[in-house]
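Morning F.,

Quick status update on the modeling queue. The single chain you submitted on Monday has been processed. Sequence for confirmation:
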Amino acid sequence: MKKIVLLFAAVLFVVGATMAQSKDNQSDVTISGNSDDNEVKVSQTLYGNELNVSDVSITDNSDDNEVTVEQEGEDQESYVDIFDNASGNEVNVDQDDEEQYSEVIIGESSYDNEVDVDQEGEGNGSYVGIGVESSGNEVDVEQDGEGNGSAVGIVYGSNGNDVTIDQDGEDNYSEALILFGSNGNDINVDQNGEDNQSFAGIAEDSNGNDIDVDQDGEDLSSFVGIAEESDGNDVEIDQYGRNHESSVDIYDASSYNDVMVDQDGNYSTSEIEISNGSDGNYIEVGQK
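C-alpha cells below.
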C-alpha cells in the first residue's frame, strides 16, 4: 500500500510542476448556494512563454450547470472543483499547445457529474480526483502528443464512477488508483505509441472494480497492484507490438480477483505474484 501511495504522490508532483510560475491572466468563476442551470464559458489565448489560469468552482447544492474552458497557448492551467452535494454538472476543458495542466476535483457527495478533458500538445498533465462518497460520475481524459501524464484517484467510498484515459503519442504515463472502500468503478486506459507506461492500483477494501488497459506500440509497460482485502475485481491487460512488460501483484488477503493478460508480439514478459493470504484468484496469461 505504501508503494502505491508514494508513487501516486510522485506523479502529482510531476504533473503539477507548472504551478510555480507567475500568472499573466486569471479567471475565477464560482457557482454556489443552490444555483442551478447556469452556463459558463472561459476562453484564454496567449502566445509565447506566458501563463493563463482558469479556476471554476461549483459547490453547495448547485446542480445541472455547464462549464466550458478553452485555453490556447503554452503553460496554461485549469482548475475545476465540484463539491458539497453539487450534482449533474457538465464540465469541458480544452487545452491546445505545450505544458498545459488540468485539475478536476469532485468531492463531498457530488453525484452524476460529467467531465471531459482534451489536451493536445507535448508535456501536458491531467489530474482527476473523485472522493468522499462521490458516485456515478463520468470522466473522459484525452491526451494527444508526447510526454504527457495522467493521474486519476477514486477514494473514500466513491462508487460506480466511470473513467476513460486515452493517450496517443510517445513517452506518456497513466496512473489510476481506486482506494479506501471505493467499489464498482470502471477505469479504461488506452495508450497508442511507443515507450508508454500504465500503473493501476486497487487497495484498502475496494471491491468489484473493473480496470482495462489497452496498449498498442513498442516498449510498453503495465503494472497492476491489488492489495489489502480488495476482492472481486476484474483486470484486463492487452498489449500489442514488441518489447512489452506486464506485472500484476495481488497481496494482503485480496481474493477472488480476475486478471487476464494478453500480449501479442515478440520479446514480451509477464510477471504475476499472489501472496499473503490472497485466495481464489483467477489468472490467465496469453502470449503469441
